[in-house]
Protein: Cysteine dioxygenase
Amino acid sequence: MDCKSNDKNMPKIATFDDLVDNLRTIFEGNDIDVDYVQNLMLSYKSNPIEWQKYAHFDRNTYTRNLVDKGNGKYNLMLVCWSEGPVVTRIHDHSDSHCFMKMLTGNVHEIKYEWPDIKMSSQEMNVLDESVIEDNGVAYINDSIGLHRLEHRSPTSQAVSLHLYIPPYNKCQIFDESTGSRNEVKSTFYSKYGMRTPFTVSSN
Structure:
């Protein structure tokens, strides 16, 4: 999916449903402006009452909760982080664009270089580390690098909104000390506010 300039005026995003509806409108076409999507997500000021029905937590881990599958063009989901530390594995995004907006709390993002497949057992290089705060938006794709997310607070939960264009159901995970990789399946803890049958989230 191409990401080209979009000159549309930014709509008013007053509620979570406004954001969901406008994302559907954007993805009726195939040309997407990354900056426009990022600004659209930034324009929504989080109100927990509006997205609470999608927020399902599991103790000592994080959950992926599907909000909208966008007619097959994208996945929009809430990731719910229990009290920390909760850490993802280092992973790629299967050639998808990945936007992440913090709805409450914060997470640390650590970006990594892709490991050199010609080198064996080499520690992965860190590119950058940042904190994504309340209402902040981050963006990554595979050309930028890999990343790991960490929710470090031992006393509070966090919720982030993730948009993947196009959707994917598997990705690669990486060992930080060696750069070795494995392919894993990505699963949903709930869909549209309803708990799914028990599965284990992988990335």
Summary: The radius of gyration is 17 Å.
